[in-house]
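Please check our next protein.
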Amino acid sequence: MDFWDYLANRHQQLLTDSFQHASAVFQCMVIATVLGVVIGVLTYRSPWGGSLAVLSTAAILTIPSLAAIGLLIPLVGLGVAPTVIVLTLYGLLPIVRNAVVGLRGVDPDLVDAAKGIGMSRTARLLKVELPLAWPPILTGIRVSTQMLMGIAAIAAYASGPGLGNEIFRGIASLGSANAINQVLAGTIGIVILALLFDAAYVLLGRLTIPRGIRV
């Protein structure tokens, strides 16, 4: 059976795995974005606080993803739980780093002007600082998403959802008729999903970032 015949025969399962893969990455990115921006907001005013936040989230990336999932299995079991925890933690660094950099890069004169017209600290953060810091934050989200697309495949080790199951099945049955087809289908599916997500972020940037800021 060639690759195209394999896709035709397995398209329903591949679509299901693709949806689960995209859904897992999307949901974990939402959680990581909220946590990352909150951490950035809480630490960007302090030089040591921002550095500590970035170093802490960077340290997480030094742990091999397979090892992290393996360590979580005795604690939370197999399936979705270890997948969500690992993907969320691994997605934090680019968002935290870019949130800190973006918030620190806001023109102090604009913040002072907002303060001068009577805006509270919360209003300044929500209406001035975060909107101006949004472009680098969005860049961090894009980077995190591309990372998590690949890392999510490892979740199949813990019976997690997604295209990683296709890849692991192919690796486990190397030498069989469809082993290479399985690995190729899973790998190409992840690449396509990554490209679709990135295109969506480009569109989101065009819709949410004023042209003057983009330039």
About this structure: The two ends are 51 Å apart (CA to CA). The mean pLDDT is 90.
